[in-house]
Amino acid sequence: MSSGANTLGRIRDRARWRRAGMSRKKYVVTRRSDGLGERLNAMLNGLRLADLLDVEFRFAWPSTLSTNRHHAIGDPHDLFSAEFLDRHLETDPDAEGYPLPTGTSNDLASLRAQLQDVNGLHAPHRPLSTMIDPVAVPEVTRGLSTEFAKLEWTPHVQSAIDLARGIDLGTAPVGIHLRAGDNLYGTYGRWARYTEKVMSAPVARALTERYAAEGRQVIVFGQDAEIIKELCSSTAAQSAADLHPDGEWSTTAIAMFDLALLARCELIISGNSGFAYQAAAISDNTVMEYMKLLSPAEIVRVSEEDLRLHGDRYSPVQRSFAFWLAYYLARHELPDDQAVRLLESAVDADPKNERHFLHLAARHFRAGRIEHGERVLLDVMARDLARGKIYRSADLFALLTIGGFDALELFPDFDKAIDSGSAVAALYRSAVRARSEESVAADLALFVDACSLDPRLADLAEPAEFTIRFISARPTRA
User: Fold this and answer.
1) 285 — phi, psi (to 5°)?
2) Which of 52, 102, 279, 371 is spaced 20 to 30 A from 15 at the CA atom?
């Protein structure tokens, strides 16, 4: 069917929609509380969906993360024009009656039917094609440059965007987005589920050298200025920060400058980063995830080689993450000795990250090295205690495994150790049971024995402390 026929059909659909009595105002809304990229992704999806359904668009701007140093959220009045906010800003970010579209086979008729019994629909931050049938509604498959053009910025932010659009980037520029922030240095840096959002320094170096060898300008974007400076000083890459305009610019304006600049790159390489996907969407482009450019085996190889040559130039957290990423992506195919070596290297580089200890212990348990795994767990418990974070690793283990939230794959390995009589592994299982409000009496009976294995844990030998921690308090976040 031609585009003209599609347009005419859409007009007829909208006329029938109005005649059907759906004259009460309906809305498509967005209420993301995460990073700037994901918020903008949802807003652009919302504008597209509102246009398709012939309803109004509203968005909320929760203050969540607005003061977080890893994000550039800020006040919406510093980002969008007053006129745009008057038309679209939702004053009640928690209003009910705005569900996400249900199902993945929605056409416009089914979406309009869903609107009948609610105030409106909640636009997702992921591509609309994940919730709407792209065959029935092909508009959901195209880029979002048209919607981006509908956003109205403050003069300060608009100037930053205009400057980014005027910079000479050469022929076929490549943009590499190095996500860091809270996925590396904050709370999420302890969770395996966010690993693929971040590209390690060795992977970034390998891809930079690949495209620089083709004569293409490689520009590196990201939050970790230290690692970007290192990469750009030792390769042909250029830091996006070196292209920032002179003068006084807000954090949000610089973020939008980077977004507009990254959007101009012919090839955008990143992990699962909302910021990179936002840049691609506003230029009708796509993101090439680094996992598709290098196989897990290649990532292990380039990581081990690069860390031997350049590892001392990276911060401990970046070095540790590089070992972890190599392990995590290739964990199902790695030989046991190599897997253990990568995890031990991650632990050595950043012994504050409990995640690495838990996976290393599980690896030992899987291979039948029960005592080795127990020593790893006792070590991390002792480190927890020394840092004033009693049972933090056990708390994390509970969060990681309950309901498959993050690392349910660890459970069989710990069960194997428990079946072999490991009191230490049983301690961690009891953390899970306590979080699930199950009885932990059998595990508590082994608790004193577990602590007695390591003199550093003598202060933890009182089961009452454990009971208070996991049954009365029941922490809800890692």
Assistant:
1) -115, -175
2) 102
Q: Give dist(CA 46, CA 101) in Å, integer.
A: 12
Distance CA 213, CA 207 (A): 10
Provide CATH 3.40.50.11350 ranges for the chain: 156-293
CATH of 296-473 given 1.50.10, 1.10.10, 1.25.10, 1.25.40: 1.25.40
User: Helix or strand or coil: residue 238?
Assistant: strand
Q: Give the CA count within 13 Å in the CB-facing half-sphere of 20.
A: 12
The greatest distance separating any two alpha carbons of the chain, rounded to the nearest whole angstrom, comes to: 78
Convert 264-291 to b/e letters by CB count within 10 Å (16 or more is b): bbebbbbbbbbbbbbbbbbbebebbbbb
Query: Apex CA 298: angle with CA 293 and CA 302, to 5°?
Result: 105
Q: Which amino acid does the sequence have at 391?
A: Y
Contact between 308 and 286 under an 8 Å Cβ cutoff? The reply is no
The residue count of the chain comes to 478
- What CA–CA distance (Å, rounded) separates 3 from 42? 26
Task: Return the H-helix or E-strand segment holding 364.
Answer: helix 354-366
**CB-CB contact of 218 with 238 (8 Å):** yes
The fold of 156-293 is Rossmann fold (3.40.50)
C-alpha 401/C-alpha 416 separation (Å) is: 15
239 DSSP β-pair partners: 220
Cite the residue boundaries of each domain of the chain with CATH code 1.25.40. Answer: 296-473
What is the 8-class DSSP label of residue 193? G
What mean pLDDT, rounded, does the chain reach? 82
Q: What is the pTM of this model?
A: 0.81
